[in-house]
Amino acid sequence: MLTFKNVSKVYGKTKKAVNSLNLNINKGEFICIIGPSGCGKTTTMKMINRLIEPSEGHILIEGKDIMDQPKVKLRRDIGYVIQQIGLFPHMTIGENITLVPKLLQWPKEKRKARAEELIELVHLSKDYLDRYPQELSGGQQQRIGVLRALASNPPLILMDEPFGALDPITRDGLQEEFKDLQQRLGKTIVFVTHDMDEAIKLADRIVIMRDGEIVQVDTPDEILRNPANEFVENFIGKDRLIQTKPGVTKVGQIMNKVPATIHKEETLSTAIKQMKEKRVDSLLVIDHEHHLEGYIDVEDIEQNRKKSTTVSEIVETELYKVKENSLIRDTIQKMLKRHTKYVPVVDENNKLKGIVTRATLADLVYDSIWGEEESEEELTTLQ
Amino acid sequence: MNAMIQFLNDQGTTLLYKTWEHLFISITAVLLGIIVAVPLGVALTRFKKAAETVIRIVSVIQTLPSLAILAFFIPILGVGKLPAIIALFCYSMLPILRNTYISIKNTDQNLLEAGRGMGMTSWQLIYKIELPLAVPVIMAGIRISTVYLIGWATLASFVGAGGLGDFIFDGLNLYMPELILAGAIPSTILALLADWTLGLLERKLTPTTTSKQSELA
Ligand SMILES: Nc1ncnc2c1ncn2[C@@H]1O[C@H](COP(=O)(O)OP(=O)(O)OP(=O)(O)O)[C@@H](O)[C@H]1O
Ligand SMILES: [Mg+2]
């Protein structure tokens, strides 16, 4: 949907910031542009919405040359998020979010409805719509910054280090939330970052740049496995290359595909029987279509044995879940951080696909420790 | 005290009339100043090269002695209210122009970048973002201008424009201190009142940046 054809940008007379760039971005793709400072990431991105005009070449969106469209119209059709957030301090959150719809002259009712719909996407209450930016934390502000870019539902969103100024924990949460949002809404994203971990986590494809040129474009997996040259290798960093295995292993590859489950309408006594049979202390609760409803554990049953009879009465719905394509490395970290014993794996429709338990992790650690040593032995024998 | 009551009995209506004249001259001059200096200040931020020069010229005008400026306009515009208003208008320019220019120029670049990136036109950037955020500083310039002008408007009497200056000049000529006071005191009161009113206006015009909720807290 987005194509760069021999695009160059020359500042002044001689400074070539971007040099004859060619790139094809598909619809719904999450592209991260990464590279050392000054390599032309921002320039590349801003040429897309003509905040910077290309000196040479063509940029096409859905086949149409951006230079043939009025700037203002072009920009209203492209979401834009900046690192400094840039919420307008004299407008409420609601007004900030619906700025582009207002520019597009949507009626007031429609704007209000849209703001309410959007704020729910990031799990903030409607009260926030009447507050002002300075009353929100940095992380909340950038959530609003993202919503503002989504407001008129543009198919393409540009983001220049949007999470760069946030503390690591907030950033981590927002990355996850945003990736999830992007997949649900099917947006095409061009995301500039200088954080390799961020790129690996978010991108469908990573564009690595150096001195205004593209060095490699590939999936995170491929880049980690087969860096194009020494520059990429150094840029990724030795430690990441070594831990590549667990680094890019997806949850789907190692999860246990037959978790212990119980139907929500079953009785508690059936539940306890199941636990005994399978030798587990908790069960994932599902409905007819195999959607994950929550979990119950043996203590809950014990406490509520007299008052309740069915599983659905005592099911705990608050629980942390991951997708099949989540990185196992992140999942491990989260499990350790949250002290959870297991994490259920679901698809986009919340259907239960499997479970990652601490036992699964033990397998993985075993593999990576003994697996590594085995290969080292192989090396010695080969030599 | 008696002298004052006596004075008000004799000259009450004149005093009211002169006060009105005084106010009319100064307010007209300030309004002209706003109409010219605010747009000019905004425009200068778009032509930064010209900005320095223009502001320097306006600053020079400010340093010319007020009587000289008034006298300068007599051959061109004759005597009366017009030359007085024009001369005062020249003085009102600088604080308003400079404050407008500086506050607009210092608008947070990130906000402009965000606005532009979302597809706001230059006009929309000015009236939706730059001007509202610059209100407190521009209003400060307008307040300073107004207070000065009300003081200087006493000199308008010199070119036959009327106003409270008439009392002061009569007082000087006839050597009657109470007449000087009859001009000076109301003019001071006017200046204070104007400043106070503009302060209220400023608060009204300054955009809110916090919700009621947190103001209470
Ligand atoms: N307006 C400008 N005028 C002249 N040179 C510029 C301008 N903007 C950027 N450059 C130069 O062009 C090059 C690319 O800049 P760009 O901002 O695209 O880099 P970047 O990859 O985004 O860097 P960073 O990671 O530091 O944000 C740099 O060498 C920069 O100094
Ligand atoms: Mg940059």
TrEMBL record, chain A:
<dbReference type="InterPro" id="IPR003593">
    <property type="entry name" value="AAA+_ATPase"/>
</dbReference>
<comment type="subunit">
    <text>The complex is probably composed of two ATP-binding proteins, two transmembrane proteins and a solute-binding protein.</text>
</comment>
<dbReference type="Pfam" id="PF00571">
    <property type="entry name" value="CBS"/>
</dbReference>
<dbReference type="InterPro" id="IPR003439">
    <property type="entry name" value="ABC_transporter-like_ATP-bd"/>
</dbReference>
<dbReference type="GO" id="GO:0016887">
    <property type="term" value="F:ATP hydrolysis activity"/>
</dbReference>
<dbReference type="GO" id="GO:0005886">
    <property type="term" value="C:plasma membrane"/>
</dbReference>
<dbReference type="InterPro" id="IPR027417">
    <property type="entry name" value="P-loop_NTPase"/>
</dbReference>
<dbReference type="GO" id="GO:0031460">
    <property type="term" value="P:glycine betaine transport"/>
</dbReference>
<dbReference type="GO" id="GO:0015418">
    <property type="term" value="F:ABC-type quaternary ammonium compound transporting activity"/>
</dbReference>
<comment type="similarity">
    <text>Belongs to the ABC transporter superfamily.</text>
</comment>
<dbReference type="GO" id="GO:0006865">
    <property type="term" value="P:amino acid transport"/>
</dbReference>
<keyword id="KW-0547">Nucleotide-binding</keyword>
<feature type="domain" description="CBS">
    <location>
        <begin position="255"/>
        <end position="311"/>
    </location>
</feature>
<keyword id="KW-0677">Repeat</keyword>
<feature type="domain" description="CBS">
    <location>
        <begin position="315"/>
        <end position="373"/>
    </location>
</feature>
<feature type="domain" description="ABC transporter">
    <location>
        <begin position="2"/>
        <end position="236"/>
    </location>
</feature>
<keyword id="KW-0129">CBS domain</keyword>
<dbReference type="InterPro" id="IPR017871">
    <property type="entry name" value="ABC_transporter-like_CS"/>
</dbReference>
<protein>
    <recommendedName>
        <fullName>Quaternary amine transport ATP-binding protein</fullName>
        <ecNumber>7.6.2.9</ecNumber>
    </recommendedName>
</protein>
<dbReference type="Pfam" id="PF00005">
    <property type="entry name" value="ABC_tran"/>
</dbReference>
<dbReference type="GO" id="GO:0005524">
    <property type="term" value="F:ATP binding"/>
</dbReference>
<dbReference type="InterPro" id="IPR046342">
    <property type="entry name" value="CBS_dom_sf"/>
</dbReference>
Automatic annotation (TrEMBL), chain B:
<keyword id="KW-0813">Transport</keyword>
<protein>
    <submittedName>
        <fullName>ABC transporter permease subunit</fullName>
    </submittedName>
</protein>
<dbReference type="GO" id="GO:0031460">
    <property type="term" value="P:glycine betaine transport"/>
</dbReference>
<keyword id="KW-0029">Amino-acid transport</keyword>
<dbReference type="GO" id="GO:0055085">
    <property type="term" value="P:transmembrane transport"/>
</dbReference>
<comment type="similarity">
    <text>Belongs to the binding-protein-dependent transport system permease family. CysTW subfamily.</text>
</comment>
<dbReference type="InterPro" id="IPR000515">
    <property type="entry name" value="MetI-like"/>
</dbReference>
<feature type="transmembrane region" description="Helical">
    <location>
        <begin position="150"/>
        <end position="169"/>
    </location>
</feature>
<dbReference type="GO" id="GO:0005886">
    <property type="term" value="C:plasma membrane"/>
</dbReference>
<feature type="transmembrane region" description="Helical">
    <location>
        <begin position="57"/>
        <end position="78"/>
    </location>
</feature>
<dbReference type="Pfam" id="PF00528">
    <property type="entry name" value="BPD_transp_1"/>
</dbReference>
<keyword id="KW-0812">Transmembrane</keyword>
<keyword id="KW-0472">Membrane</keyword>
<feature type="transmembrane region" description="Helical">
    <location>
        <begin position="84"/>
        <end position="104"/>
    </location>
</feature>
<feature type="domain" description="ABC transmembrane type-1">
    <location>
        <begin position="19"/>
        <end position="198"/>
    </location>
</feature>
<dbReference type="GO" id="GO:0006865">
    <property type="term" value="P:amino acid transport"/>
</dbReference>
<dbReference type="InterPro" id="IPR051204">
    <property type="entry name" value="ABC_transp_perm/SBD"/>
</dbReference>
<feature type="transmembrane region" description="Helical">
    <location>
        <begin position="181"/>
        <end position="201"/>
    </location>
</feature>
<feature type="transmembrane region" description="Helical">
    <location>
        <begin position="23"/>
        <end position="45"/>
    </location>
</feature>
<dbReference type="InterPro" id="IPR035906">
    <property type="entry name" value="MetI-like_sf"/>
</dbReference>
<keyword id="KW-1133">Transmembrane helix</keyword>
